[in-house]
């Protein structure tokens, strides 16, 4: 048992990062990994003899107004399962990926198990949409095993979808070889940031749910007391609205819109504080990435964020929309060197202990082993 098919959204986003990094770690442990996605996962940055990529082609027949991606995916999954004799399809997101996997399992000749990892958006958004509710529930219940990225997401899924099936919590992780603080003396200068200024950072896909206006208002209050710059990384529907708010507050010289960035870890290496003021967030992988680069975080007390930030230890939690409290915590922390360095060390400890990639990959491997009734070791035959 050693061939795993992985399906995720390959474009920018935490779920794609986790799926890809997991695939690379599995390959390093001797598994054969087959990515079945609409394009090459953006984080698949290296060549490995045990990693394969199967592109899902979307056919544009004149008769279809909307090309059926989910069906093309199911067909490709079934084809790869049969040809490569896959043991497991590990899909990220119940909707639509688990649904496609169930269809693939039904039509493939070779038996395959389905593992579904829930990342949040399908539950928090679609779970409330009655048209999709039953389908998401079906995707979860028909999977051989299901994981979620936080305890909070498990509870939310159980409540929203009235699910009895056991959902395992397997936390997200970061690639420690990529996310660590490095010295890049020239970077501040390149961005026009003075040595004396503090750097606050926010990273997201600029959707409404990220409440970036709260990030801006928090920063507005911080910069009144501390010389600082706000770096915004990412792009999305809220971007121009946020730029208008920045202009209306007269802080445009102190806010840098960098758009999407490939080497976020380098920018995190010059950051002093990270803000995540989301309305919903099942985990907040960007928090972990920041913490791994020695950056304390302030986040909202929602979703899985309290499972990542330890209030008063690695950062602070504030109630949704409480930008005054967030700014006050930020100012106090940035002015208190001893507390600040304790937070940095605590954050690094948490990344290395609670969320270490080697622990997480072992948890996934245990789960893979567990779905085979005869409990054959999935390592069988692997050196
Ligand atoms: O936040 C998003 O809109 C993207 C989405 C994704 O597909 O990456 O993020 C979700 O999954 C991440 C990886 O598990 C989590 O870190 C994010 O918290 C989660 N987003 C939400 O719950 C809104």
Notes on the protein architecture:
This protein is an alpha/beta fold and 383 residues long. Helix content is 43%, strand content 16%. It has 15 helices and 13 strands. Strands 3-2-1-4-5-6-7 form a seven-stranded parallel beta sheet, with helices on both faces. Strands 10-9-8-11-12-13 form a six-stranded parallel beta sheet, with helices on both faces. The longest helix has 17 residues. The chain is globular. The mean pLDDT is 93. The structure holds ligand GMT. The site of ligand GMT has 20 residues, from helix 1 and helix 4.
Radius of gyration: 22 Å
Q: Provide the domain count.
A: 2
The CATH superfamily name of the largest domain is: Glycogen Phosphorylase B
Distance between the termini: 13 Å
Number of strands: 13
Ions, cofactors, ligands: which are bound?
A: ligand GMT
Task: Look up the CATH topology of the largest domain.
Answer: Rossmann fold
Helical proportion, percent range = 40-55%
Mean pLDDT over all positions? 93
Strand-helix topology:
Blueprint: E1 3-7, H1 14-28, E2 32-37, E3 51-55, H2 69-84, E4 88-92, H3 94-107, E5 113-118, H4 121-124, H5 130-141, E6 145-148, H6 151-161, E7 167-169, H7 185-190, E8 198-203, H8 212-225, E9 228-233, H9 239-249, E10 255-259, H10 264-268, E11 273-276, H11 285-292, E12 297-300, H12 305-308, E13 315-318, H13 323-335, H14 337-353, H15 357-370
Parallel strand pairs: 1-2, 1-4, 2-3, 4-5, 5-6, 6-7, 8-9, 8-11, 9-10, 11-12, 12-13
The structure holds ligand GMT.
Ligand GMT binds at residues 9, 13-15, 18, 119-121, 124, 149, 172, 205, 207, 209, 280-285.
